[in-house]
User: What shape does this take?
Amino acid sequence: MGVMNLRKRLQRLEAPNPGDPSGCLLYSPGWFHYWEQKIYRVFVAKTEPAERGCLTIEAYRAILVARADHAGEEPSEERPNLSC
Assistant: This one.
C-alpha cells in the first residue's frame, strides 16, 4: 500500500504542472528558460501586458534565487536552446 502511494505522488511531481503555462516540469531548464523570457517580455521589453497573474509565485521565487546564486557573473550573450 505504501509503495503505491509513493508511486502516485512521484508521478504527480514528475508530471507537468497543469496550472503553469510553460507546460514544462517545474524547475527544469525549459521551465526556467520560459519564465526568464516571459519576465523579459513583460517587465523589460514591455511587449506583453503586465496582467494580474502573469507570473506564478514559483517562477518568481525560482528566478530570484537563480539570479542571486549567479550574482556577479557576466551574462551570457548566447542562450542555449532549452526544451522541456
In short: The longest helix spans residues 29-44. Confidence is low (pLDDT under 50) at residues 77-84.
